[in-house]
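Worked example 3. Consider a protein that binds glycine.
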Amino acid sequence: MQQVIYSNDINNTLEGLIANGDFNRVFVLTDTNTARVALPLLDLDGIIPITIPAGEENKNLDTVQAVWQALIDGGGTRQSLLVNLGGGMVTDLGGFAAATFKRGIRFVNCPTTLLCAVDAAVGGKTGIDHGGLKNEIGVFAEASHVIVSACFFATLPEAELRSGFAEVLKHAMLSSTDSFKTLLHTNIGNLSPNQWLDLLRQSIPVKQGIVAQDPTEQGLRRVLNLGHTVGHAFESLALQRGKPVPHGYAVAWGLVTETVLSRLEAGFDGMLLNDLALMVRDSFGSFNIT
Ligand code: GLY
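Given these inputs, the predicted complex is written out as C-alpha cells:
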C-alpha cells in the first residue's frame, strides 16, 4: 500500500526513508527544469542524479531507454531506489522506468508541482506517450512512498499553481460539499507552505480512497475524470487553433460545463453552480480562442 507523507522538510524525510530502506544505490531522476530549481534543494550524500530533457515531447521510449542505461551505468540493481523529483512527466516516466528495470525496483515520488502532487504522483499510473497518443504504453505500479512537500511550490508560476488547484477543486466536488464551499472562497495566492500541506492532507486522500476501491480503473476510478471529458475537448480545440491552454484551466472550464449538465440532468444545486462559475471565471478567465 502506497504511503503518502506530508512534509515541508524534504531532506529529513527522504533521508529517513533511505536510511530505513537498505538500498545499495539511490538515483534521483529530474528533468532539465527540476535539475535547476528542485535538485539544489536536496542536501543528501551519495545520490546519483539522472537528468532527462523536459517537456511532454520527451515522454517517450528513447527517454526511458536513457534512464535504464543510466541505472545500469550507475550500478543499479534490484536493491536500488529511484527517486522521481519533478512534475507528472517525471513521475509517469520515472515510475515506468523503475517498474520495468530488472522486473521492478522500488521508487519514491517527490512531486514538485501542485498538479503532480494532487494527481499524477499518487495512484500508480505510470507510462509514456507513443504514436501520438498520451500514456499509450505503461503499467500500474505504485511508488512505495509519495513525499508531498509544498517547499517546491515557491518556484512555480501562478498559472501552474492554479492549474493544480482545479484538481483540488475536483476532489472536493467528489467528496464534500463543505470542502467545496470553502475552496470556492480560498485565495491560493496567500497560502503558506503549511496551509498548502493542510489543504493537500484533505484533497489527496479523496483520490487514494477511490484508487483503493478500483486500482486499475475498471469502473469507479473513472469519476476522477470529472471535468476532464469536456476539459480535454477544450484543450484539443485550443491546441488545434495554435493557442494551447494549461491543463488545469481546461479542467476548471470542464468542471463548470459538466456541472451545468449535472444541474440539468440531476438537479445539482443552482446556487453552488453559480458560485463555481463565478470563481472559475475570476480565477481561470474564460475559454477564448478567437
Ligand atoms: N488522473 C486520474 C487517475 O489517476 O485516475
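Take a moment to read the result before moving on. Residues 3-153 form a domain with the Rossmann fold fold (CATH 3.40.50.1970). The longest strand covers residues 26-31.
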